[in-house]
């Protein structure tokens, strides 16, 4: 069964450093998402992406965050200057072809630890 | 975000019996609902969904019931199996929206 893959599985970064989290969505999906889960809290929506642009973003997704689809298969989340509170599990998801009303399929996540 | 609530943090059930997980929502604009299962160190795995035009959807051992007037949905797993032991998340979205709002999850333990 096709799946969403995320790398790395665990990223440790010094506060203030830039970090890039990588995702390969399911190949025929057109909608891509990032969510995060801080330890002990709910899974929270960050951003959705379609047709090479952001379709929706949450208030969490401020100027420190950016997303990109650099080629036909990868989808990345960049955090420019990490803060301690960015420590969380980051999940990538994809859905298609209409996006809304279709299940999102999640990767296994990247655990981001900010020191 | 308190729009989706799972008020039972845990559920213990005997193998072979029915597991019933509950979820309440406050946003009447939600019209698409999903259940995900999550094992430790893995991402959420899609289980089953239901749109607001239905009140029941069944897929094998999993059935989701939707009560729009009560803003309540439930997931029934029957019969429960040891491999069903996991955290179950309820999620919801609106038809003109891309984001999912998640509940806090219910940890299900299936006892042999």
Describe this structure in words.
The complex is a heterodimer of chains A (115) and B (112). With 115 residues, chain A is mainly β. Chain A contains no helices and 11 strands. Chain A has strands spanning 5-7, 10-13, 19-24, 31-37, 43-50, 53-57, 65-68, 75-79, 88-95, 105-106, 110-114. In chain A, the strands form 2 sheets. In chain A, strands 2, 4, 5, 6, 9, 10 and 11 form a 7-stranded mixed β-sheet that branches. In chain A, strands 1-3-8-7 form a 4-stranded antiparallel β-sheet, with no helix packed on it. In chain A, a hairpin with a 6-residue loop joins strand 7 (65-68) and strand 8 (75-79). Chain A is globular and about 40 Å long. By secondary structure, chain B is mostly beta strands. Helix content of chain B is 0%, strand content 54%. Chain B has strands at residues 4-5, 10-14, 19-25, 32-38, 45-51, 56-59, 62-67, 72-77, 86-93, 101-102, 106-111. In chain B, the strands form 2 sheets. In chain B, strands 2, 4, 5, 9, 10 and 11 form a 6-stranded mixed β-sheet that branches. In chain B, strands 1-3-8-7-6 form a 5-stranded antiparallel β-sheet, with no helix packed on it. Classes of the chains: A mainly beta (115), B mainly beta (112). The A-B interface holds A 4, 6, 31, 33, 35, 42-45, 48, 50, 55-56, 58, 91, 93, 99-101, 103-109 and B 1, 32, 34, 36, 41-46, 49, 51, 89, 91, 93-105.
Instruction: Tell me the structural class of chain B.
Output: mainly beta
**Helicity of chain A, in percent?**
under 10%
- Radius of gyration of chain B, whole Å: 13 Å
Q: Report how far apart the termini of chain A are.
A: 37 Å
The topology string of helices and strands of chain B comes to EEEEEEEEEEE
Shape of chain B: globular
> What is the element string of chain A, with H for helices and E for strands?
EEEEEEEEEEE
- Tally of alpha and pi helices of chain A: 0
Mean pLDDT of chain B: 95
Helix/strand/pairing category of chain A:
mainly beta
Poorly predicted regions of chain B: none
Portion of residues in beta strands of chain A equals over 45%
Largest interface: A-B, 26 and 27 residues
Report how far apart the termini of chain B are. Answer: 36 Å
Q: Determine the oligomeric state from the structure.
A: heterodimer
Find the count of extended strands of chain B (DSSP E, 2+ residues). Answer: 11
Tell me roughly what share of residues is in helical segments of chain B.
Answer: under 10%
